Amino acid sequence: MKKIYIFGTGGFAKEIYFLISEINKAKSTFEVAGFIDLQPKSQHLEIGGNKFDVFDEDSFFKDSSNADASFAIGIGNPKVLNSIKSKYLSAYDFPNLIHPNVVGLFETIQFGKGNIITAGCIFTVDITIGSLNIFNLNSTIGHDSQIGDCNVINPGTNISGGVYIGNNNLLGTNSTVLQYIKIGNNNLIGAGAMLNTNIENNKVAVGLPAKEIKENK
Ligand SMILES: CC(C)(COP(=O)(O)OP(=O)(O)OC[C@H]1O[C@@H](n2cnc3c(N)ncnc32)[C@H](O)[C@@H]1OP(=O)(O)O)[C@@H](O)C(=O)NCCC(=O)NCCS
């Protein structure tokens, strides 16, 4: 079993613990060795009756004995993911963590590193995915879609065929992106939104159909 550390100590970090437990049920792969936080509020985190160490991020990465471990993102915030990408992605092992029930024609799908793909997601065919994206429960990704890095796709999101999504976007729970729509970088798409026009960069868009309401600063 390989040691894996999870970034974050909030609710989504717990979801990653669940995901790793599910992966281990199918094939024993990872031992959760602890959690990493920029400013830990506590030295321990209890999940499901088990107590884990929480490490301060800066001290953790000064300790060279941690270099062989694997790492997983457990924070659903594109800005934080982008910071983890610039600090650690090239130097450390970030495996793609894919729940055993995820469906996809995987020989036609390219994944970068460190993607989190939780239960119930469906990827169809000819899809390109970058690194450090989160695909949360029951999201669907259609044919020929291209997705960059550090995107947070919240539960129940439907991405139709031929969609392009850049980097650092958040798509709210149960949002829908219609076919061949392009989304740039650093956008927030509201929960339940339906995107039927392209969106450039740094916008907040909500509603059905989605309208830009402000800049994402
Ligand atoms: C879109 C979003 C990012 C905006 O957050 P925000 O910048 O804090 O914006 P505010 O809450 O100030 O809302 C601004 C306006 O948009 C409206 N609004 C916010 N989210 C909306 C949504 N999803 N659909 C429709 N309208 C929405 C607000 O009612 C408010 O309208 P008003 O100006 O008429 O009062 C956020 O509301 C959202 O939907 N986040 C997704 C969260 C999610 O999916 N979480 C899942 C975790 S698993």
Description:
The structure is a single chain. The protein has 217 residues and is α/β, with parallel strands linked by helices. It folds into 2 domains: 2-75, Rossmann fold, CATH 3.40.50; 97-207, Hexapeptide repeat proteins (UDP N-Acetylglucosamine Acyltransferase, domain 1), CATH 2.160.10. The chain has helices spanning 11-26, 57-62, 78-89, and strands spanning 2-7, 30-37, 44-47, 50-56, 70-73, 97-98, 109-111, 116-117, 122-123, 127-129, 134-135, 140-141, 146-147, 152-153, 158-159, 164-165, 170-171, 176-177, 182-183, 188-189, 194-195, 203-206, 211-215. The strands form 4 sheets. An 8-stranded mixed β-sheet has the order 6-8-11-14-17-20-22-23, with helices on one face. Strands 3-4-2-1-5 form a 5-stranded mixed β-sheet. A hairpin with a 4-residue loop joins β22 (203-206) and β23. It is globular, with a radius of gyration of 17 Å. The chain binds coenzyme A. Coenzyme A binds at residues 154-155, 172-173, 188, 190-192, 204, 206-207, 213.
